[in-house]
Amino acid sequence: MAKPRKLASGRWRVEVWKRGVRDSQVFLTKREAESWAARREIEIEDAARTTPANRHTLADVIRRYLAEVAPAKKGERFERLRLNAFLEAGHPLFSMTVGDVQPADIAAWRDTRAAVVKPGSVLRELTLLSAVFEAARRDWRWLESNPVHDVRKPPVQPHRDVVISRAQIKAMCRQLGYRRGPVRSVTQACAVCFLVALRTGARAGELTSLRWESVRERSATVDGKTGKRDIPITRRTRRLLDQVAGFDRVLVFGVGASTLDTLFRRARAAAGLSGFTFHDSRHTAATWLAPRIDVLTLCKIFGWSNPKMAMVYVNPTADEIADRLE
Q1: Torsion angle of C-alpha atoms 246, 249, 250, 255, degrees rounded to 10
Q2: Who's near 159: CB < 8 A, 6+ residues apart?
Q3: How many whole angstroms separate alpha carbon 318 and alpha carbon 326?
Q4: pLDDT in tens, 43-65
Q5: Element (H, E) at 47
């Protein structure tokens, strides 16, 4: 409790400093000063308990984030799936009032997640949780600090360096029922989408959302997580697009991202293959294109703002490099 201090005038001054709130008063007697200080500290405590941070749980914050923030983000689907999974899991962290959550609480949740998912997944989930706290801090003014900032992150994992072989590509195309000529089924559309990804380096989501109105003779405009960009359409890519023309009037490939992912995984398993994903077509395309164009042009095609990303996606083998040096 605050202690009154006697002034030269004979009066008593008392200062209260609690929960970041500072206040002071001067009284005729010491008893009056002590009584006021006690009442003022109770008032500050009561006020703190009525703030949004102490009225709402972390689960409440997540629900508001899903309603107001996530819909405006390109990664809404991932965020919605992950955050709903957090809520359904029932971990004690999410029933805590958001103002009471400390870095140690998040670290305990991190360790729980690390026991069931890979470090890369834990890192992505911590980043998402940080975004939730940041919305509560910056946009809604419910918090003074983001507790995730003081939590140790899992070590960064080595980047994938998978390049899909031509034998694997042929096996996937056979399994998806690909043939030259007009596309007649969803699996054939997936095969053409896969082949276009290998030639352009476009992401699965960029291709599945591509509309015919955005396709021109020599280029197409895709809308990805880094914004809109133009990708070149070569003669071979144009022939692939001609095969899928008419399958869907609006979307080029007429298939959604989740359907593409499911059919691709199913075909890979049926073909007896493993060790690569649809996204590895982006690594493969970058590796194929790198010897033919300069790094800045490669960055423009792939939508990289930092040329260092070429080191992540261009993955030639040592044997291939040796062949080029002959």
Answers
A1: -60
A2: 312
A3: 13
A4: 877 776 677 888 889 999 999 99
A5: helix 30-49
Helix (H, G, I), strand (E, B) or coil at 156: coil
Interior/surface letters 204-214, b for 16+ CB within 10 angstroms, e for the rest:
bbbbbbbeeee
Contacts of 39 by beta carbon, 8 Å cutoff, 6+ apart: none
Task: State in Å, rounded, how far the first CA of the chain is from the last one.
Answer: 82
Confidence label for 326 from pLDDT (cuts 50, 70 and 90): low
Look-up: residue for tokens 């021109």? 216
Residue 79 contacts by C-beta under 8 Å, 6 or more apart in sequence?
66, 70, 73, 128, 131
* pLDDT (tens digit per residue) in 246-299: 999 999 999 999 999 999 999 999 999 999 999 999 999 999 999 888 888 998
Neighbour-count burial of 191, counting CB atoms closer than 10 A to its CB (0-12 exposed, 13-18 middle, 19+ buried) = buried
What region does 143 belong to: left with phi over 0, alpha with psi -120 to 50, or beta? beta
Paired with 221 in beta bridges are: 230
Burial of residue 311 (CB within 10 Å: 0-12, 13-18, 19+) is: exposed
- State pLDDT tens for residues 80-139: 999 999 999 889 999 999 989 999 999 999 999 999 998 889 999 999 999 999 999 999
**CA-CA-CA-CA dihedral for 266, 271, 275, 277, to nearest 10:** -40
Residue found by looking up tokens 């002034």 in the block: 7
Confidence of residue 319 (pLDDT cuts 50, 70, 90): confident
CA angle 50, 56, 59 (to 5 degrees): 170
- Residue 126, amino acid: L
